[in-house]
Write a structure and sequence with these properties.
Strands 1-2-3-5-7-10 form a 6-stranded mixed beta sheet, with helices on both faces. The chain has a 4-stranded mixed beta sheet with strand order 4-6-8-9. The two termini are 25 Å apart. The protein is α/β, with parallel strands linked by helices. It has 13 helices and 10 strands. The structure holds octanoyl-coenzyme A (CO8). The site of octanoyl-coenzyme A (CO8) has 21 residues, from α2 and β6.
């Protein structure tokens, strides 16, 4: 992969860390950045040493949205021909390892949508979430109307999407958009610690747990429960399941082989 220009990539133990790094534009998500992000996520997904991924921005902004300056002169024919959004925005949904969004500062428009595509969000107390597209004469286009509504319910999603109002970290936690809020200075360490814990468990079991939770957004309750049951039963084919339960019975720490 050529040296990326708009992101910083590093590993911390078994956690892959991707930082959006376009400070001059508050990490606005231009096409080049999204392509680099997609490549970095795919590389971590394929890397056996990595068990979880943290995606973060800067102290000031996770991402202030799609790049408005890049978008502003595009016409309908351009965005349809290019499949604008679909072809580079949804890579994060293809990643099988858990992706944790660590959000400080602004997560607006496509930035909020990108965070919501991740498996869970941890917020700094400085985080601000919003879908301000209405103020630009568009609607959210990378899942905001669907994922925000599922996360916080219809009234709050409607209010935010119809007015462009931002939600602070405390409100986002109350509303269930974020898993928890931490002091800004501890955000990355907390997210990495969470990633390390996830990475300490059996990889196939983690992947199945992620798949089962995500199915809750794509299926009826009965279908989701059926999938969960079959995945649960599949765990009994794994040495890690035998090890986890034997370790409990023998009062020792499990040593998972699929890591
Ligand atoms: N796109 C391009 N440039 C941006 C963006 C953006 N989204 N956000 C900020 N910038 C730039 C500013 O233009 C400015 O550049 P310059 O110094 O050259 O003028 C620099 O970043 C710093 O920004 P500000 O001076 O505005 O910083 P402030 O601290 O005063 O304000 C705000 C911060 C409130 C975040 C403000 O920058 C702002 O309102 N930004 C736009 C937020 C927004 O409307 N986001 C939604 C974009 S639309 C969208 O995401 C649609 C998604 C559809 C799906 C994705 C399809 C690809």
């Amino acid at each position: 992969m050529p040296m990326p220009e708009h992101i910083l990539v590093e590993t911390r133990g078994a956690v892959g860390l991707v930082r959006l790094n376009r400070p001059q534009a508050l990490n606005a998500l231009c096409d080049a950045l999204m392509l680099e992000l997609g490549a970095a996520l795919r590389a971590f997904d394929a890397d056996e040493a990595i068990g979880a991924i943290v995606l973060t921005g800067s102290e000031k902004a996770f991402a202030a949205g799609a790049d408005i300056k890049e978008m502003k002169d595009r016409g309908f024919a351009d965005v349809v021909a290019d499949d604008f959004i679909g072809n580079r925005w949804e890579t994060v949904l293809e990643i099988r390892k858990p992706v944790i969004a660590a959000v400080a500062g602004f997560a607006l428009g496509g930035g909020c949508e990108l965070a919501m595509m991740c498996d869970l969000i941890i917020a700094a107390d400085t985080a601000k979430f919003g879908q301000p597209e209405i103020t630009l004469g568009v609607i959210p286009g990378a899942g905001g109307t669907q994922r925000l509504t599922r996360a916080v319910g219809k009234s709050k999603a409607m209010e935010m999407i119809l007015t462009g109002r931002m939600m602070d970290a405390a409100e986002a936690e109350r509303a269930g958009l974020v898993a928890r809020v931490v002091p800004a200075a501890e955000l990355i360490d907390e997210a990495v610690k969470l990633g390390e814990r996830i990475a300490s468990f059996s990889r196939p079991v983690v992947a199945m747990a992620k798949e089962a939770v995500n199915a809750a957004f794509e299926s009826s309750l009965a279908e989701g429960v059926r999938l969960e049951r079959r995945l649960f039963q599949s765990c009994f084919a794994l040495a890690d399941r035998a090890e986890g339960m034997a370790a409990f019975a023998e009062k020792r720490k499990p040593v998972f082989v699929h890591r």
